[in-house]
UniProtKB/TrEMBL annotation, chain A:
Keywords: Membrane, Transmembrane, Transmembrane helix. The lineage of its organism: Bacteria, Pseudomonadati, Pseudomonadota, Alphaproteobacteria, Hyphomicrobiales. The chain crosses the membrane at residues 28-52, 58-77, 142-163. This is DUF1468 domain-containing protein. InterPro entries: DUF1468.
Automatic annotation (TrEMBL), chain B:
Residues 21-440 form the DUF112 domain. It comes from Nitratireductor aestuarii. Keywords: Membrane, Transmembrane, Transmembrane helix. InterPro entries: DUF112_TM. The keyword Transmembrane applies. The chain crosses the membrane at residues 46-71, 107-132, 152-179, 200-220, 260-283, 323-344, 356-383, 390-409, 415-445, 466-488. Pfam families: TctA. This is DUF112 domain-containing protein.
Length: 167, 500
């Protein structure tokens, strides 16, 4: 729903209140800000604020925490008063696959070396983009992993094995 | 005159054998990411940042800067031929550039945008040559209190002038400040925000943050919003490249005005190329005798906005190089690159590293000349390049992210940080938060805190020092004005009008 449509909706009913307090982009962002602000504030207090003359390690985090809580509250109050677009954070299998590709690289690299790690990463991303795995993708990932070895290990001297077997 | 000789000297340095290759490599890569929709200069710079650790600092900066201003040229090609902005700053070019392409005038539109880009860039380089050194000399007088106020202004400007809500911009700056604090406190050695993880003791690498927030987030966003690109690219032949006399005449003054607007925006810390191109377009529409023709393929707005974003991209180096205040997210990354190479950004940079400074400026002249060659005679290659499918592009981007971030500290935990920042970046962008202010906060954060604490130490806790020193006071007044003006929101009205 557009901002205007919600604004013209008039009174704030019970459902509308929950919507405005927790479900709009602004309020969700506001709550995130408040949460991180609290962490920063707690961190500041734990480290010690120091004195005005000599700020302690916690002085700066404390101040930032206060500001974040304030600004977060501002966003939430703004959303309560004016409403706003509903937050939408679509999660697709493809996005999860991208993250999985990165994670697999981090796990496989120290165990098996650059080539296997790179191939698995690229194949996972290919599947994420097209939804299937073609011969072209496999050949492309093979070629790219060899290119990566030539550029980063031979060319730039990254201290990594191209391929290894941990057993 | 002295500056002129220094520039000549810088050009000689930039023409030396490896430097010129890095410059050409940088601008070519910049053109590529500019042309490709969905891969911005920010992601590209984050990607090649680890690679540049292995080369000389001057060459590294030359290459990284080349990507940035090269992308400003490339973006308009996609806008004109595909009606998709290759980069955010060339979005306005779609408005008139694409209608021109539909009329068979794509070549002329490309010529005018390239010409405008070239003029805008070069005028800004002149400004850079004239102003950077005197500005740095003034800045040498700055004391910690002045630095603090100036950086505060930079951060607030980043938050208020960027797109979207001001509160969200400031929140992102504060998130960046927190990320900048992770690790040991330089003054006391206390561990902050590490929560017992030894991997966090050395702080969070800016490359991991940039790759997560820009690289991974961009790929995820492209997959989610999806949509195949329109495959029909307009063909451009040599003969259609030349604009008519009338088109040339119509674009001359807009290019001059756009360059001026762009230069002014580049000097303001915190603004960026997208805002300057929007404002230049609207200014041109406002003073035009036939505003109704805008959006139907007139050259004025297009010429002006392209000159403006290129002028901004070059003049943004003035505050970055002479004050150490990054004008936008890309500049923040460049500052980070300097620090990694052991160069302390700030007013002393010019006097301590004149060769790096003038070599970099010299490379701008060469890079811009090369971009004109890349742009017009080689246009056919870029048209072909536009048809590279995303299924090949995305795996390469993600692989480069993984290897790049690993190579910094040879640590796989950095890759997991990238995953975390990618998720955070995606969620925050869906909620209307911009990532650039966060990067500025991350880079400037440690300096802001350091100067605040030093200023208070010198004055024995007297907070009045920020108001008593005229330089500091001026910056604070400017900061207050920025906040006030954002409450009044002229920019938002500007943008609304532009989008309408």
């Amino acid at each position: 729903m557009s901002k205007e449509a919600i604004q013209t909706a008039g009174f704030v009913g019970k459902d509308n209140l929950v919507q405005r307090l927790f479900l709009t982009s602004d309020s969700v962002g506001g709550w995130i800000s408040v949460a991180i602000g609290c962490v920063s504030l707690a961190q500041g207090l734990a480290l010690g604020l120091g004195t005005l003359r000599r700020l302690g390690s916690g002085g700066f985090p404390f101040g930032i925490g206060v500001l974040l809580i304030g600004l977060g509250a501002l966003l939430i109050v703004g959303s309560l008063r004016r409403g706003g677009a509903t937050a939408s954070i679509p999660i697709k299998v493809s996005s999860v696959l991208i993250l999985a590709a990165l994670a697999s690289f981090a796990v496989l690299l120290p165990l098996f070396g650059m080539i296997p790690a790179a191939i698995v990463l690229m194949l996972l991303v290919s599947v994420a983009v097209t939804g299937r795995l073609g011969l072209g993708d496999i050949i492309f990932s093979l070629a790219s992993s060899v290119a990566a070895v030539l550029i980063f290990i031979n060319g730039l001297g990254l201290a990594l094995p191209a391929i290894r077997w941990p057993l | 005159m002295e500056a002129f000789f220094s520039l000549l000297n810088g050009m000689a340095l930039a023409l030396a054998w490896p430097s010129v290759l890095y410059s050409i490599g940088g601008v070519t890569l910049g053109m590529m990411v500019g042309v490709l929709p969905g891969v911005g200069p920010m992601a590209a710079i984050a990607l090649i940042l680890p690679v540049t650790f292995h080369i000389a600092p001057t060459d590294a900066l030359i290459m990284l800067a080349g990507v940035y201003y090269g992308a400003q040229y490339g973006g308009s090609i996609t806008s004109i031929l595909l009606n998709l902005p290759g980069t955010a700053s060339s979005a306005v070019v779609c408005l008139d550039g694409h209608p021109m392409a539909q009329r068979g005038r794509a070549g002329a539109a490309l010529f005018i945008t390239t010409f405008g880009s070239f003029i805008g860039s070069n005028l800004a380089i002149v400004l850079l040559v004239i102003f950077a050194e005197p500005l740095a000399r003034v800045a040498l007088q700055f004391q910690p209190a002045d630095y603090f106020s100036m950086m505060l202004m930079g951060l607030i400007a980043a938050a208020t002038l960027s797109e979207g809500s001001v509160a969200k911009g400031i929140i992102m700056v504060l998130f960046g400040l927190i990320l900048g604090m992770v690790g040991a406190d330089v003054n006391t050695g206390a561990q902050r925000f590490t929560f017992g993880f030894t991997d966090l003791w050395n702080g969070i690498s800016i490359v991991a943050v940039a790759m997560g927030f820009f690289g991974v987030t961009e790929v995820i966003r492209n997959l989610v919003t999806g949509g195949e690109r329109d495959a029909s690219v307009y063909s451009v032949t040599w003969r259609t490249l030349l604009p008519t006399k009338q088109e040339m005449r119509d674009s001359t003054m807009p290019i001059a005005r756009g360059s001026l607007i762009g230069m002014a925006f580049g000097l303001l810390p915190g603004t960026g190329t997208s805002i300057s191109s929007f404002v230049a377009y609207l200014a041109e529409k406002k003073i035009s005798r036939h505003p109704e023709k805008f959006g139907h393929g007139t050259v004025e707005g297009m010429a002006s906005s392209e000159a403006a974003n290129n002028a901004t991209a070059q003049s943004a180096f003035i505050p970055t190089l002479s004050l150490g205040i990054p004008a936008d997210g890309v500049m923040a990354l460049l500052l980070a690159a300097m620090m990694i190479h052991g160069i302390q950004p700030g007013p002393r940079f010019l006097t301590e590293n004149p060769d790096v400074f003038w070599g970099l400026i010299g490379s701008f002249v060469i890079g811009n000349l090369f971009l004109v060659i890349l742009n017009l005679p080689l246009i056919g290659i870029w048209v072909k390049f536009l048809s590279v499918p995303y299924r090949f592009l995305a795996p390469v981007v993600i692989l480069l992210i993984a290897i790049g971030v690993y190579s910094i500290q040879s640590s796989t935990s950095d890759i997991f940080f990238v995953i975390g920042f990618g998720i955070a970046g995606y969620v925050l962008s869906r909620l209307g938060f911009q990532a650039a202010p966060l990067l500025l906060g991350l880079v400037l954060g440690p300096m802001v805190e350091e100067n605040l604490r030093r200023a208070l130490l010198i004055t024995r806790g007297d907070y009045m020092v920020f108001l008593e020193r005229p330089i500091s006071l001026s910056f604070l007044i400017l900061t207050a004005l920025l906040i006030l003006s954002s409450v009044w929101t002229p920019w938002k009205r500007f943008k609304k009008k532009a989008e309408a």
